[in-house]
Automatic annotation (TrEMBL):
Chief location of this protein within or outside the cell: cytoplasm
A GO term from the CC aspect: cytosol
Protein name: Cytidylate kinase
Enzyme kind, highest EC tier: transferase
Domain (Cytidylate kinase) ranges: 6-220
Family per record: Belongs to the cytidylate kinase family. Type 1 subfamily.
InterPro entries named in the record: Cytidylate_kin (IPR003136), Cytidylate_kinase_dom (IPR011994), P-loop_NTPase (IPR027417)
Entry keyword Nucleotide-binding: yes
GO molecular function terms listed in the Swiss-Prot or TrEMBL record: ATP binding; CMP kinase activity; dCMP kinase activity
Length: 223
């Protein structure tokens, strides 16, 4: 039988990766965090002062970036040219720049190519913004996740605080989420949108266990 792909898309910080990891673990699939790839590329662009509006600079940079996942424990440990960057890509400098970098056509083309390669021969759960629409339009199971923006900001704020970030306020987080949602849904290249066949999952009032139960039910119905 052909390999299986579960696609999870949705707005920023609505728990896509939490659900994706739990689902992957239950199903014995590999979890792939596509957002981490855009974040790692963004980190490279920041460090190397790559001008995203200069097509030659973007081409050159993309030719010098190697991303790899180490998915022990279904966490998304990603390396950028061999360096572990999983923590650094979650910090604000990357969060405030990533939507601009990810809107770039050349960047998207390269990431989509790599993502499709990863899902070619393995059973995977991949989360992101365009997985059900562009990367794996034929995925047999697709979810589109959403949640109240204030709840999302509070969740992400707590996460940053627990990691020792004392400079970012709840308002900063709220604004960053609003900005990314706007940029991600209005960009020209594969904007964030629900695939016609994606199951909507609003988790504003759902626990993680309830979401997992719901998603597992859906997966078992579809497969
Ligand atoms: O999923 P995460 O919030 O880490 O993604 C960070 C950013 O990467 C998003 O705001 C979006 O701009 C970009 N992204 C994307 N397509 C994906 C995954 C992420 O454009 N498939």
């Amino acid at each position: 039988r052909k390999n299986l792909v579960v696609a999870i898309d949705g707005y920023s910080s609505c728990g896509k990766s939490t659900l994706a990891k739990a689902l992957a673990k239950k199903l014995g699939f590999i979890y792939i965090d596509s957002g981490a790839m855009y974040r790692a590329v963004t980190l490279y662009f920041i460090r190397n002062h790559v001008n995203v509006n200069d097509p030659e600079a973007v081409d050159y940079a993309l030719g010098h970036i190697e991303l790899n996942f180490h998915s022990q424990d279904y966490q998304s440990h990603i390396t950028l040219n061999g360096e572990e960057v999983s923590e650094e890509i979650r910090q604000m400098p990357v969060s405030t720049t990533v939507s601009e970098v990810s809107a770039n056509k050349k960047v998207r083309r390269e990431m989509v190519k790599q993502q499709q390669r990863m899902g070619k021969s393995k059973n995977i759960v991949m989360d992101g913004r365009d997985i059900g629409t562009t990367v794996f339009p034929d995925a047999p199971v697709k979810f589109f996740m959403t949640a109240d923006p204030k709840i999302r900001a509070e969740r992400r704020f707590k996460e940053l605080q627990s990691k020792g970030d004392t400079t970012t306020s709840l308002e900063d987080v709220f604004e960053n989420l609003a900005h990314r949602d706007y940029a991600d849904t209005t960009r020209k290249e594969s904007p964030l949108t629900r695939a016609d066949d994606a199951i909507i999952l609003d988790n504003t009032d759902l626990t993680e266990a309830e979401q997992l139960d719901f998603a597992l039910d859906m997966v078992h119905q579809q497969l």
